[in-house]
Amino acid sequence: xxxxxxxxxxxxxxxxxxxxxxxxxxxxxxxxxxxxxxxxxxxxxxxxxxxxxxxxxxxxxxxxxxxxxxxxxxxxxxxxxxxxxxxxxxxxxxxxxxxx
Amino acid sequence: xxxxxxxxxxxxxxxxxxxxxxxxxxxxxxxxxxxxxxxxxxxxxxxxxxxxxxxxxxxxxxxxxxxxxxxxxxxxxxxxxxxxxxxxxxxxxxxxxxxxxxxxxxxxxxxxxxxxxxxxxxxxxxxxxxxxxxxxxxxxxxxxxxxxxxxxxxxxxxxxxxxxxxxxxxxxxxxxxxxxxxxxxxxxxxxxxxxxxxxxxxxxxxxxxxxxxxxxxxxxxxxxxxxxxxxxxxxxxxxxxxxxxxxxxxxxxxxxxxxxxxxxxxxxxxxxxxxxxxxxxxxxxxxxxxxxxxxxxxxxxxxxxxxxxxxxxxxxxxxxxxxxxxxxxxxxxxxxxxxxxxxxxxxxxxxxxxxxxxxxxxxxxxxxxxxxxxxxxxxxxxxxxxxxxxxxxxxxxxxxxxxxxxxxxxxxxxxxxxxxxxxxxxxxxxxxxxxxxxxxxxxxxxxxxxxxxxxxxxxxxxxxxxxxxxxxxxxxxxxxxxxxxxxxxxxxxxxxxxx
Amino acid sequence: xxxxxxxxxxxxxxxxxxxxxxxxxxxxxxxxxxxxxxxxxxxxxxxxxxxxxxxxxxxxxxxxxxxxxxxxxxxxxxxxxxxxxxxxxxxxxxxxxxxxxxxxxxxxxxxxxxxxxxxxxxxxxxxxxxxxxxxxxxxxxxxxxxxxxxxxxxxxxxxxxxxxxxxxxxxxxxxxxxxxxxxxxxxxxxxxxxxxxxxxxxxxxxxxxxxxxxxxxxxxxxxxxxxxxxxxxxxxxxxxxxxxxxxxxxxxxxxxxxxxxxxxxxxxxxxxxxxxxxxxxxxxxxxxxxxxxxxxxxxxxxxxxxxxxxxxxxxxxxxxxxxxxxxxxxxxxxxxxxxxxxxxxxxxxxxxxxxxxxxxxxxxxxxxxxxxxxxxxxxxxxxxxxxxxxxxxxxxxxxxxxxxxxxxxxxxxxxxxxxxxxxxxxxxxxxxxxxxxxxxxxxxxxxxxxxxxxxxxxxxxxxxxxxxxxxxxxxxxxxxxxxxxxxxxxxxxxxxxxxxxxxxxxxxxxxxxxxxxxxxxxxxxxxxxxxxxxxxxxxxxxxxxxxxxxxxxxxxxxxxxxxxxxxxxxxxxxxxxxxxxxxxxxxxxxxxxxxxxxxxxxxxxxxxxxxxxxxxxxxxxxxxxxxxxxxxxxxxxxxxxxxxx
Lengths: 100, 499, 645
Hints:
- Chain A: Belongs to the complex I subunit 4L family.
- Chain A: GO terms for molecular function: NADH dehydrogenase (quinone) (non-electrogenic) activity; quinone binding.
- The structure holds 3 protein chains of 3 kinds.
- Helices cover 74% and strands 3% of the residues of chain B.
- Chain B is mainly α.
- Chain C has one domain.
């Protein structure tokens, strides 16, 4: 029997993978994918909880998250492309112009 | 920008400011001198859910300050005719400044007041920072941060009042007139008074919070200095009259010695430091510290002569110090220096200018028959009635005023001309004449026949005294209890319930 | 007729306005006529007012003309209202009369000056202010006049503003006067505090109706503060130093402002407040002592001065001292009487000196004069009249007034006052005749070039001299002991205190132990003193011209001390002026302001800046680091949420 706990553990693992990926990888695209991973980990929890609680709200939220993630993917990838055009790299160690 | 467009901008701004002045005149003529209530009141909801209203109105105290503002504005715009850099932005800043200043004097809603208070800070900051002298950035930032520091405490106090009022009446409002009815405990008054007084003392500026003033004045363009000295400083003193005294009467009474001594030190100190300046603008700036000291002394005399004198002196200072800055500006335009040592003997080349300058100087000294005397004498009389010692020390300020002003005048206007550049100076132009003459006429008017002005203040000042007096009836025993010990009850616990 | 009193002020004011605004574009003659005409009309109206006052019964000689409310605030009220009573009438007649003559004289004297219209504008303004001072009916309005005459004095001393000494002197005059005004202003405030009014009539009637016992502390303070104002305006110790310097102004100005009128304002003020002063014996002692001390002190300086105008300036200070001595012993009539006669003969002397200076193309040093008697005869004759008058030889004006003061000092005061006054009188006679002899007699020490231009002054200068000489001669008869017209006229103002005692005949009954012969003895003694002074001067400067040199060598120290005016200016500089400047620059400005206050302000700014610099290191610009902080933060919050409780 797969209980809610399994889902949540999986979600936590996925989320942690995402976080670690964001923290240690240098390629912007991979970091970006890791962020998506984190979002989807949360989505998983939402769905699991919705099922568990017999509530549609969690499902609803997932759709929101997915919409936001899609928008974010569009904007984020565009930024990365723009940065790559200027800097010819997507290595974030080389992109530290946010510091004044 | 081509010059025709610039000219158009100047003339438009001038016309706008003149129209504003003309529109403000009915305030004076239709003002009912027998009523102490706010007049010409307008109250419209702004953010009703927080109880914030666009609530304006004037009484005999703010009336003259508004008139002073609208009067000085065309004068300053005329005095900025030579500005060529970013002229559009300059004029916009001036007009925004005017909005802010009139708003501060007219607001009866503390939230609105605070908005205006901060609003006028920005254009002034820009005026100094963009159109100022060589050290303009330093001066502008110093001005801004000094004032901001004070304002933050005031904002806190305003919010505290908001919640205290809610606790007392169950109503959320920023209405000043409602706040007047609050019965605050002494401890609350003490801290709130401190917060307000800190903001206003910086603005006045009272010794020892005055050091932004010389820098700001020296760097600001002429019109900026005129507005700064003429109106902005009055916001501090006005704040004391409008907020500190009626809202926190008992605390105000307790603070009489502190404020009075600060004022007295300011009078003497400002005069002495002014005496030894070699920069004309700095000299006038420090003289403002001295003059505003008189105003504060008058206000904290807590009697009708003192407060009426204080208000008169606010106007007088606006006129004569404003005029002094204009005069210095005229010299600066000709010679591009403000150092006293670079002048000397100008009377010979500029006789008309010399006459006008002398009248303004004398008005600043407080010569009887000119405006300065009326205010100063009433202040000293009021102070004398409440505390003889204070008045006696402060009166010595009139000696020092003569010393520093006349010494300055002598070094600038008398003697032989020693600098070659000064031999070709031109006397006042028609524009400059038109700038100074209205000021001088009012200087004479207030000096010779001040009674119409004073009568319009009577009702409001009497009411103010009644407010402070009635609410502070218990002050005598409070004073004995609290002068030594700073009250321990803090504002947080008083208002905690609201959060 | 009394209603016309406002016109007395109006005419000079119109003159000021016309000459000030349009004088530059008018012809010189017109400017002069307008100015003189204004004062002349003022004088005529003053005579009318005087006649109007005479028509009233003596007790009812008080008329007030209400113009408008000047300042009103709460219970404080100062009217712009004029008051005509015998005292102010004497003053307006003196001021406008002598003023008129000096205006006429100025037409000639200032003829070549570029600032002609400016000069007359100021002079008219001065006359206006002085008349306002004496006509006002309350203390604050009087204070306008009081300060305004100071302003005119400032403007006129600094008339030749290119000269550094002139503008310095002008500033000094104003500032020193301000020191006095400080006292005056406080006095007025204290009056308001005590009497709840600053109206002369109200204050004095309240004071004279026995509400205050003699020696009342408040009254003593009031009178002392007012007297402080008087020492400034009337150049008494310790505030007299401005007057000698004030001689930098044009000579007619010295005559009008610094001899005849403005400097007597202090005496007028004390006479006006006689009711208050009589209530305070302590103040009276102070007034008398300072007056006596000044009389002697200034006279001693006058002995050795070489500038013709400075001698007269010190003489003025000394004579003012006499007036204060008179007031201080309660002889207000004598003080006012001397004020009037002094206005005549001192104006005459100054104008005469001006005529001499004019003749010598600006030379003021009496060591470079001599033997001018035959060259400028009219000036000489009138100057002689003035000198005799001030020396106190009967029947010239100075004799009567000075004699009366000495008599009063003896009778009401004490022997010390009298002897100081007598010594000062001796000095006066001596230095005035020294001046006369050195200027008009002996050998000519005028340099050749100046000699060629030597000329008698034109008619518009000599006529006022003659008129003043006439007044200096007959002026004294107004106050002949026993039948004193001025005493009688002023008695309503000075009340019962004085009028019974002043006339010599009545004196016997009042202070029996002196006897009726005393006034006559006094007359003889004071005449003898004057003659002794003249004789000394004659011996030293005519008979044995080398004697002064020997004496100088012998008493070098004293001579130097006197020549340098006891170094008072230097002492004041060292005590007040320089330390103030130094403290202001070094301690207050550079120390407190720049270092302490601004230092701490900038210090706080720097501290914040420094801290920010440290915090800034966290801002690496690497997103990874920021993400890491976020994660650490999240973990921290989660841990706190789970294990915090």
